[in-house]
Amino acid sequence: xxxxxxxxxxxxxxxxxxxxxxxxxxxxxxxxxxxxxxxxxxxxxxxxxxxxxxxxxxxxxxxxxxxxxxxxxxxxxxxxxxxxxxxxxxxxxxxxxxxxxxxxxxxxxxxxxxxxxxxxxxxxxxxxxxxxxxxxxxxxxxxxxxxxxxxxxxxxxxxxxxxxxxxxxxxxxxxxxxxxxxxxxxxxxxxxxxxxxxxxxxxxxxxxxxxxxxxxxxxxxx
Amino acid sequence: xxxxxxxxxxxxxxxxxxxxxxxxxxxxxxxxxxxxxxxxxxxxxxxxxxx
Lengths: 222, 51
Description:
By secondary structure, chain A is of the alpha+beta class. Chain A contains 9 helices and 5 strands, in the order βαβαααααααβββα. The longest helix of chain A is centred in the first third of the chain and has 19 residues, at 16-34. Chain B contains no helices and 3 strands.
């Protein structure tokens, strides 16, 4: 085992609570790290929240949720307004009017390529911003390649990996692992293979979990 | 995103939590409360709205 505390995060790019949770986790991590202690290694894992989502949906978020999921439009708008406010409180500028709803399978494949190249955290951040704040389409190869290039990946390599399905099995393995762990919702955080945190919890919860994991290490070596 | 109403599986404080059929017990010690925002089965519940 490495000296760093391992944090495994199951997440989907199209999950609004996952980007909000990312910011809350980062704040919890900042507080934890301020007092020293073991370092933290973060790895994101794939969780396709709505596999039945079409790659190309011609309509906005309200139309998707009201038409595809059968939720009254007024209720959807109210819900999006509330999530947007929570996101703003976390420093994020969600723009649901511009969101391009799509299937996220290929975005997950790019995240695995990014992990292999040591750029996964950069890619996660780029995809979340693209989806929730910038109205970018994260379901098309060319757009994904552009975003990946922004994160430092080789554009041609991304296109080839998507064409060949190089990381199909890795995405599926993450999904299978989630099922084995009983993870049915995201975001879900596993701290040092010991503690589980479900949802976009307050930063204090993440700080507490990290301190618990660090404390366990201290006890184990005492 | 996905969101909206879903069958509530999170009990209020002191109430039993009804696990969905086929649920697998978590092997982890769960930290935090059950009121945080989470997306599940294509739906994203908003804490406080009862969904």
